């Protein structure tokens, strides 16, 4: 378990590796089958996930392995493309849901676990994210792990040096 406060600043980045549709999310049936009355899971994120409906200002993103245990919701204010290190984009991006290993909504992005995140942007999804591979291409291996990322503006200079 690595808490965010203990995580080195240069590692505090949420990669956006691929973007999917609602089809990549777990169904209510698969979640229920997986938890099978297991009381270890916080039921609140699961209940909220069941009520959620995707809006135009949200993306469903594969974000790779969590850099630390990060509480949800989580706000990031900087989006970047590693190929354009001098062009960070100021955003208000909120990670609303974290889907642990693609199986179950939980209240954290867990350190070292594969994560699908539902990310909401204040106004609209930044156009630069149209360059992120879709789920089909990702599954075929057509992606770059460290191309796009979210971080906090005050950490950007340290993050960008380590990300590529």
How would you characterize the overall build of this protein?
The chain has helices at about 30-35, 45-50, 135-140, 155-164; strands at about 15, 20, 60-65, 70, 75-80, 90-100, 105, 110, 115-120, 150. The protein has one domain (about 5-164). By secondary structure, the protein is α+β, with helices and mostly antiparallel strands. The strands form two sheets. Strands 1, 2, 3, 5, 6, 7, 9 and 10 form an eight-stranded antiparallel beta sheet that branches. It has a two-stranded antiparallel ribbon with strand order 4-8.
Could you provide a short overview of the structure?
The protein has one domain. It is 18% helix and 32% strand. It contains 4 helices and 10 strands.
What is the terminal-to-terminal distance?
25 Å
Give the amount of beta strand, in percent: 25-35%
Count of helix runs = 4
Q: Indicate the mean pLDDT.
A: 91
Number of strands: 10
Low-confidence stretches: none
- Cα-atom radius of gyration: 15 Å
Number of structurally distinct domains: 1
Q: Assign an overall shape.
A: globular
Element order, helices and strands?
EEHHEEEEEEEHEH
Class from helix and strand fractions:
alpha+beta
Describe the sheet with the most strands. 8 strands, antiparallel
- Percent in helix: 10-25%
